[in-house]
């Protein structure tokens, strides 16, 4: 039993940094630095930074940029908080998975909590996606497709 507890503790200290992309000493998780790793926690890509960083190529107007930046200001902290919560929840489920006093129902509930948090992140991303669809014109889409083709973003481009 003692050996199992030690293995669990060792796994948490080794596994948590691998999951979160941060060292255990880092208390302030830096979303921007780990966006690629966190993006694997959900299924829609994070495109807003790519769009705003390439606004000249995409030929966004000042009004379009402002609308996208307003969305980011309104939602960024909530998205970051939820993505950090997913990392915390995943570390928690890994920690308790081998504890004998934790029931299967409790682990199932932890997994359901992760699903609920992932759903909130998905809802934010869909909201951003809707804004992009409302904001972009045909010329913007042409520039955006060029940016996607030049980036390392793995998005299927269907014509």
Which properties best describe this structure?
single chain; 159 residues; mainly alpha
Verbal overview:
By secondary structure, the chain is mainly alpha-helical. It is about 70% helix and about 0% strand. The chain contains 7 helices and no strands. It is elongated. It starts with a helix and ends in a 9-residue tail after the last helix. Residues about 1-30 have low confidence and may be disordered.
Write the layout of secondary structure elements.
Layout: H1 2-20, H2 35-39, H3 48-53, H4 55-58, H5 62-96, H6 104-135, H7 138-150
Helix pairs in contact: 1-5, 5-6
Beta-strand percentage range: under 5%
Number of domains: 1
Please tally the β strands and state the result.
0
Instruction: Please state the average pLDDT score.
Output: 78
* Shape category: elongated
Largest sheet: none
Cα-based radius of gyration, to the nearest Å: 19 Å
**Termini separation:** 58 Å
| Sequence of secondary-structure elements | HHHHHHH
Low-confidence stretches: 1-29
- Structural class determined from secondary elements: mainly alpha
| Helix residue percentage | over 70%
């Amino acid at each position: 039993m003692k050996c199992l507890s030690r293995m669990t503790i060792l796994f948490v200290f080794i596994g948590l940094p691998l999951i979160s992309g941060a060292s255990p000493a880092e208390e302030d998780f830096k979303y921007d630095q780990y966006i690629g790793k966190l993006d694997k926690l959900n299924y829609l890509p994070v495109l807003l930074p790519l769009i705003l960083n390439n606004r000249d190529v995409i030929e966004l107007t000042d009004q379009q940029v402002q609308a996208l930046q307003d969305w980011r200001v309104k939602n960024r902290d909530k998205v970051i908080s939820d993505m950090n919560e997913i990392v915390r929840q995943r570390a928690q489920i890994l920690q308790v998975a081998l504890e004998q006093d934790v029931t299967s129902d409790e682990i199932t509930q932890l997994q359901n909590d992760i699903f609920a948090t992932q759903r909130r992140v998905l809802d934010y991303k869909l909201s951003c996606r809707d804004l992009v669809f409302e904001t972009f014109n045909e010329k913007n889409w042409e520039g955006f497709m060029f940016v996607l083709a030049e980036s390392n973003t793995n998005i299927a481009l269907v014509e």
